[in-house]
Write a structure and sequence with these properties.
The complex is a heterodimer of chains A (about 375) and B (about 100). In chain A, about 0% of the residues lie in helices and about 40% in strands. In chain B, about 20% of the residues lie in helices and about 20% in strands. The chains are: A mainly beta (about 375), B alpha+beta (about 100).
């Protein structure tokens, strides 16, 4: 019978939640690396017991951990992230130039085919790759160097490269997103990059339709349809049908189109999930009701999913990397909250139950479907 | 033999107890002691001082014999009591972040 492994990164350690395919009874292991911020953990699609984890602390900086046995044991690997050449400057919050400075790894994206290759999205925004299972890291300098880099500014959470999507149909195509620069794409394996933000409109920047400067919170793709992208922007839920060349809004009847998390159903490329958050200054659900919204039409028409979720006095947030899906026949959907709950649905979102309720604030959730 | 007291985060990371004992070649300075510590526990590289510049991380402090040694040159001699192992060198995570 298939199994599911949920990798949870929190403010104070990592947790691994496992269940059989029924997804009713769960085993909770952890904390791993107690006391450390675990921004992201993710398994290799090519070798599921190969896991990578980003571990950091304000005192002691960045550590990368690797497991080769599905998270039972871990070993630190390379943590030296050095920008290629002279880093130059980006813009600070007040518009003054500020030197690029490594702060932390937000997201780790293992290669679809090679367990030893993994990509890292970092703050200050840049994309790195390791081809030796995390021992050494090299930057793709063409991203920062493509021309607009000196004009990028940090979002409220820092200038982070938080989304990395590898195109399963084209090994040379990678999508990334940066707060608050926007989305970018390479079609040549990372040598050159271009912004893909046409159609985005952001009233909080001087030119609302500028080429860069948009606070993209998250982007998701269904692997069977890699030209279709969905985006949760600072405000607005967006869709692209041409690999990001253009975007149109699909917020429709959402109670708020602000939010962070977004994902796509494993078997239905037009079924997408978001968690509306009230506003950029009130990082909690509208009306104190924790609702996942599902669209089965690729956007615009949304339904609230509430069964099993708190519908009063709920003021948690769901962060950008804290939602994921499994690929079992009945698609499982998972998300974690800043209140420490990890919720799961084994029926595409119709019903929800908490796997665990009292973890530290959840920063990320990833799911592995295992044979 | 130099005795080092590590903060909790680094103990967890290196898988060691409160105190670590290390041997160094030559004179006891912050540079030589940290170099020996990192050689023995490579996982600590970058967590106490920057891997490229060698500069102390902002929220890490070095205390010994009732003194704050954080701002002294990394090549300054450590107190004799530390060099002899009579007193430990404390690596402290500054109180920050609540």
């Amino acid at each position: 019978m298939s199994k599911v492994r949920v990798l949870v990164g929190t403010k104070k350690g990592a947790f691994i939640l496992t269940s059989d395919g029924k997804r009713k009874r769960w085993k909770v292991a952890g904390p791993h690396f107690g006391g450390w911020e675990m921004y992201h953990l993710k398994g290799s699609p090519a070798e599921p017991n190969r896991l990578y984890a980003s571990q950091s602390s304000g005192w002691h900086g960045q550590v990368i951990q690797r497991s080769d046995d599905g998270g039972k044991t871990w070993a630190p690997v390379g943590n030296k992230f050095t920008y290629d050449g002279v880093p130059g400057t980006h813009q600070w919050y007040d518009g003054t130039p500020r030197p690029w400075e490594f702060k932390r790894v937000w997201h780790l994206e293992p290669s679809l085919t090679d367990p030893d290759t993994v990509y890292a999205g970092i703050e200050d925004a840049a994309l790195f790759r390791s081809t030796d299972a995390g021992q050494t890291w090299q930057e793709f300098p063409g991203l920062r160097g493509h021309g607009s880099g000196p004009h990028w500014q940090p979002g409220a959470g820092g200038m982070c490269l938080h989304t990395i999507i590898l195109d399963p149909s084209d090994a040379a195509r990678i999508f990334i997103a940066i707060s608050a620069a926007g989305a970018f794409r390479t079609d040549d394996g990372g040598v050159t990059w271009r912004p893909i933000n046409r159609g985005l409109r952001s009233e909080y920047i001087p030119d609302p339709t500028a080429e860069v400067g948009h606070c993209v919170h998250h982007v998701a793709m269904h692997p069977a349809r890699p030209r279709v992208l969905f985006m949760q922007k600072h405000w607005d839920v967006m869709r692209s049908d041409d690999a990001g060349d253009s975007w149109h809004e699909v917020s429709g009847n959402l109670p708020s189109d602000f939010g962070f998390a977004l994902d796509v159903h494993a078997h239905e490329p037009d079924t997408i999930y978001v968690v509306p958050i009230k506003s950029d200054s009130e990082h909690y659900p509208p009306e104190g009701k924790l609702r996942v919204y599902r669209s089965r039409t690729g956007g615009n028409e949304w339904e609230a999913l509430t069964r099993g979720l708190p519908q009063r006095n709920c003021y948690v947030n769901v962060l950008r990397d804290a939602m994921a899906v499994d690929s079992l026949d009945s698609c499982g959907v998972y998300f974690g909250t800043t209140g420490g709950q990890v919720y799961a649905s084994s029926d595409s979102g119709d019903h929800w139950a908490a796997i665990v309720r009292d973890l530290p604030a959840v920063l990320s959730v990833e799911v592995q479907t295992l044979p | 033999m130099i005795r080092l007291i590590l903060p909790a985060h680094l103990r967890i990371l290196a898988g060691v107890g409160t105190q670590v004992e290390i041997e160094i070649d030559g004179e006891a300075t912050l540079r030589s002691v940290l170099g020996a510590l990192e050689a023995r526990y490579p996982t600590l590289r970058g967590t106490i001082r920057d891997q490229v510049t060698g500069q102390r991380r902002p929220f890490v402090r070095f205390f010994a014999c009732g003194e704050d040694l954080s701002h002294q040159s990394p090549d300054a001699l450590l107190p004799e009591a530390v060099a002899s192992g009579a007193e430990p060198l404390l690596l402290v995570g500054a109180i920050a972040g609540g």
